Structures are given as structure tokens and as C-alpha cells.
Amino acid sequence: MKNSGALVLGIETSCDETAVGIVSGRKLLANIISSSVDEHARFGGVVPEIASRAHLEAMQSVISRALAEAKISIKDIDAFAVTAGPGLIGALLVGTSSAAGLALALNKPLYGVNHLSAHIAVDSLNSDHKLDPAIALLVSGGHSSILQVNDLTSDVKTLGSTIDDAAGEAFDKIARILELGFPGGPAIDKDAKSGNPAAIDFPRGLTLARDLIDHKYDFSFSGLKTAVSRYLAKSPDHIRADVSASFQEAVVDVLLTKAIGAAKDSGIETLIIAGGVAANSRLRSLAKERTEKAGINLRIPPMDLCTDNGAMVAAIGSLAVAKGLAPSKVGFEANSSSGITTPIF
Amino acid sequence: MSTSLAIDTSTSRTSIALVKAGKVIFQAHHDGALSHGEALPKLIADALAVQSEIDEVIVGMGPGPFTGLRVGISFAESFAFARGIKCVGICSLDAIATQFSDPDFIVAVDARRKEVFYARYTDGFRIGEPNVCQPSQLNVLQLPIYGEALSQFPDPTEFVAIAKSGRTYTSPIYVRRPDAYPAPEGVKFRAMTQLDLVPAFAIEKAAYGKDGWTMAQLKEEYLGKERMYVAGEFGGELIAYAGVFNLAGVADVLTLTVADGHRRKGIGRELLRRLIDWARTQKCEAIMLEVRVGNGEAIPLYEAFGFIEISQRKDYYGPGKTAIVMRKELK
Ligand SMILES: [Zn+2]
């Protein structure tokens, strides 16, 4: 593992986590996260204004804690990276403004980076393996896509994505219906452990032959919500854990079928699973099983690096530095809906 | 010679200035209500090309539309941190007010949703903390109204003088609570009764140990005149309480305590809001409280409500335990 690379500090504020990570080359030195998730729990979703307030409140202390954990001074940092999109605009701006303040104060380069690319780039940390080409399954509260990663910092193609809800969003919605609380992903994962994943045959969206013509690698999860609601209405004596397990199985099954299909079709032998939903235990175990069978090399970041964090932002910043890419222009624009085709702003 | 960097993003204008030994050596602005994030780094880069050495950052803490406001504060705090210099916050309305000399006038800026943030200035001084209202409510005062509607913006070259006056802030002047903030879920707020004194004492002891009130003190304070106590209950159990005392027109917060395990859920915020509301109904001119130096949970909350440190009391909580006295104007 290259230990002697540039010292890069990454800032992430696209949603409800105020996070700062520090890497040296591909080695992770610090990863500090302050979450306002508890404050949002009672609304069943992230409230932008509350998230933005919390980012500003937490920012300075998160930066200081990350530097303390890495045992370095802010003046030692060689380059800064910050999530510039996609995300909540008011939340993103707290991060980009803070990063701009640090970079201008110290006259160091600043890379505005794509949040989705960062989720995949976190796979580079603490190991020397070759990163690209790879097929990436990116699954989170805001996104569900299958990507062809030819070069992580400059050439990423979208093969397919969700046509309605994101996978993480589906977990949140179903958790709300099942009264399991927010965020839904961990709640359903836990509840499903004692349930039977084959108890109920929930639909797998966009898997019929006629759907595959136009949506080979696309997902659809909104039909699942209807199917679960309908099932609950007509089965008053249902076992909740069975519903959780069967719903989770339907999501995980379709994600993996399509992602592994993309790897096989493209002849690319590596599948990276990234994003918050990659922390789902059933997705992790079934992915291992199925990729082994298919002869595909599987990589999933450790659980704590799957959900939003600063280390992933620092990781892609560090890759950009290592490739000698130009930093972002001073005053680059944060973009709440930026696509993955621009990994570096 | 000391150089200050002044930054304001509380209005649709992003403006900055470099002031060196009382002289403005750089000044620039950019107009656009949605472009603070892009404009500010560019303006700062231009300023640093004129002079890179900076000794302090002074930033407008608002009030103003939140998203733009946070761009300036976030930038200023990080810049100051990276340089190892101090960052001072001031009220942005004060930097509009300095441009006018009427004996009595109002400064108002856009607060969105058909409201304005405003403050009143008499004989050159701001009366109380900034507040929010509908423009028509200001018109009845029949005073001159200055501000963004007349293209009058905070003047960053005035920031140094304002910071010196001591009316400084360490967090954004939000004035309004986030729209979505309801009362903490599952917590019931009601008047405190004598039956609550025993569980209250248990919470008091767990929270403050020897420094807390004794049962007798608690009871005596509770039974006193001109005061209001509120209790927070969760699952039928007392988990928080607070009391306020009206002493000749100035309200004094007697206690505000949230049980361990229930903190950081907005319960303290809700209790404090109720104490302030009561003080207003009593027509108190101000509300005061004491808080221990270094209480990192409580002080930001008080500041968010507009409490300002006015003095310190040594050994207030026992030897070596200093109290900060904070005050919020209610008029
Ligand atoms: Zn994410």
C-alpha cells in the first residue's frame, strides 16, 4: 500500500452527515463523522434546513477531531477535496465554503468531487489493488445505478439506474409502512434477520422479457411499495419479520441479478458494490455467494465506509492528485443534481 | 500593522473588504442572491492577491436568508482556523445602520416568506436583538426604514469598528426556528407541580452533584412568588424541568435541567422557548441566566436564542467554578 502519497483532507456534507476524512495516498488516517440523523428521525426523512444548520455547527469540531486523529496539523495538508454534488444544495454549500476557506487560507489545491464517484473511490483505501476497469453497483438513499468505471477520476459511464425510487428510499418507505423507524435500511436489515426471505414473493421490478428491451440495467422499486402495502392490507395476521425479509430479498435479488449481468455482458471481471445500501448484510452475503459462482471478483468497502463519510471524498481527491489532475476552478459551482459523468468538478 | 478581512453574505450581495490599520486597502462585492458560494472564493482570491497576510476575520452573522448566510460563516471560520487567527462575528444589520445618522430608525432586510429581519437603532445604538416581522408592522412606527429594499447593504469596511464595540456573536443570528422544528416527539410539556419535586431532585443530583440545589432549596425556589415552572414528561416520567422568575421586570432563569439520556433532543430548546414566552407575557424587558464556563451544550443553545454574555461571576458554582451571565433583550 502506498503510504507516502499526498496528504488529502476530504469534506462531506451532501446530506445529514458532517464528515471529514484524511488520507495519505491510499492509506486512511482519519475518518470523523457527526450525524444529525437523530434530529431527522421524527420527520421520517432528512429535513434540509435542519441538516444545513447542523453542518455549520459541527464543521469546525469535526475538522479538528480529524486532524487530531491523523496526528497532523492543518498546515501539513497537501490538497483538499469536497463533495460538490449531488446532494442538498444548502448542505453542500456549507462544505464547499468551508473547504474553499481552508484551501485559500493555505494556498493549496481544492478538488470539488462527485459524491457518487467518491462512494466508489473509497474502495481504493488501505490496499494497492487495481481500481479500474470495474462494474460498480452504487446503491444509496438517493441513487441506484450500475456504472461502467473505465477510469474512476475521468471516465465513468452509466449503464442503468432507477427509473423511480432509489433502493435506500425503498427501504425508508417500507420501514415507515412497517413502523420500523428511520433510517429504514438498518431497521429492516435487523428485523429481516428473524424472518423468512422466501415467505412472500414480492415483485422484481423491470425483470420481465419485455422490460429488458429498454431497461436491461435499470431498476424500479416503486411497485414494491404498493405490493407490500397491498399484502399488509389483505394479511392482517402477517409476520412482520417475514415481510421485512421478503421485501429485502426482492431488492437485493434484482440489484445483484442486474449488476452481475452487466459484469458478464461487458467482460469486466470486477464488481464493486458501494453506497449506503452496501452496508446491508443480506446484500453483502448474497453478493459473495453469487459472484463466487459467476467467477467475478467482488469488492465491497468495509461497512463503516459504505455510508456517507469524509474518507471517500479524501480518497477520490487523492486519486486525482496522484493522476496529476488540475484542481477545480476557484469558485466552482456546487451542483445538487450533478451526474457521475463529472467525477471532478 | 494589523489587517482585518471582513466578509458578509447576509443579503443578496456578497461583499468583502480588507482593512489595514483603519484604512480600506481592498473592497469588492458581487450581487446575486443565489451565487454567494461561487462569488465569495473568487473575491477572496482577489483580496489575497493584494495582501495575503491577515490578522483576523470578521464575518456578518446575519440575520439574513440562511443558505447564503452560512456560506460566509462557514468560509470565515475555516479560513481563520487554517490561518490560526481569530474569527469574530457581528450583526450584519449593524453594518447597514452605521451608514445612517437619524436619531431613530429601522434597518430591515429580506427574510423571505414576505417577512423582514429588522432591528431598531436609537441615538446610534441598536435596541435589543434583531427580530422578524411583516413589513407592514414596521410601517406603523413611522420611522425611516433602511436596508436591502433600498439597495443599502452591510458595509464591510465598518466591520472593524463594530467588532471593537463588543457586540459580537459566535453563531448565526437565525431569529427564526427552522420551519420544520416541532416539539420533541413523545415529550409532554406541562406546568410543574409539587409532586414533581422528588423526581426533579433526583435529576438535579445526577446532573450537578454537590453543586446542585438541595431538596429544601428546590422546594423553596419552586414555591416562591412571580415565577413559572415547566416540566417535561416522557412515558409518564419527569425528564426535564425549568423555572423562571420575574424580578422587577427582568426575568431570571432559575434552572433548566434535562435528565441524562434525554439531552440533545431539543427538550432544552423547548423549555427555554417556554420560559422566554412567559417572560414576554410578563412584559419583562429582558431575560437573564447564568451558565457555567465551558458548558458546551448549553451555551450554544442560549446563543442561538440571542443571549449575549454580559459578565462573569467567579466561584458562582463553588470555588474555581465561574458562571457566565447572559442576557437577552425582549423589547
Ligand atoms: Zn451517499
Keywords:
heterodimer, A: 345 residues, alpha/beta, Nucleotidyltransferase, domain 5, 2 domains, five-stranded mixed β-sheet, 12 helices, 10 strands, B: 331 residues, alpha+beta, Aminopeptidase, six-stranded mixed β-sheet, 9 helices, 17 strands, globular, binds zinc ion, acyltransferase (chain A), TsaD (chain A)
Give a brief description.
Chain A is of the alpha/beta class. Helix content of chain A is 43%, strand content 19%.
What Rg of chain B, in angstroms, do the CA atoms define?
22 Å
Query: What is the CATH class name of the largest domain in chain A?
Result: Alpha Beta
How many E strands of chain A? 10
Q: Please describe the biggest sheet of chain A, giving its number of strands, its sense, and whether it closes into a barrel.
A: 5 strands, mixed
Distinct small molecules: zinc ion
Strand content of chain B: 25-35%
Taking all Cα atoms into account, the compactness measure Rg of chain A is 20 Å
**What overall form of chain B do the CA principal axes indicate?**
globular
The major β-sheet of chain B equals: 7 strands, mixed
Structural class of chain A: alpha/beta
How would you name the CATH homologous superfamily of the largest domain in chain B?
A: Gcn5-related N-acetyltransferase (GNAT)
Organism (chain A): freshwater metagenome
GO biological process, one term (chain A): tRNA threonylcarbamoyladenosine modification
Pfam family, one (chain A): TsaD
Catalytic activity (chain A): L-threonylcarbamoyladenylate + adenosine(37) in tRNA = N(6)-L-threonylcarbamoyladenosine(37) in tRNA + AMP + H(+)
Tell me what you see in this structure.
The complex is a heterodimer of chains A (345) and B (331). Chain A is of the alpha/beta class and 345 residues long. Chain A has two domains: 5-124 and 303-321, ATPase, nucleotide binding domain (Nucleotidyltransferase, domain 5, 2-Layer Sandwich), CATH 3.30.420.40; 132-299, 2-Layer Sandwich (Nucleotidyltransferase, domain 5). Helix content of chain A is 43%, strand content 19%. Chain A contains twelve helices and ten strands. Chain B is an alpha+beta fold. Chain B has two domains: 3-100 and 152-169, Nucleotidyltransferase, domain 5, CATH 3.30.420.40; 187-329, Aminopeptidase. Chain B is built from nine helices and 17 strands. Chain B starts with a strand and ends with a strand. The mean pLDDT of chain B is 90. The chains are: A alpha/beta (345), B alpha+beta (331).
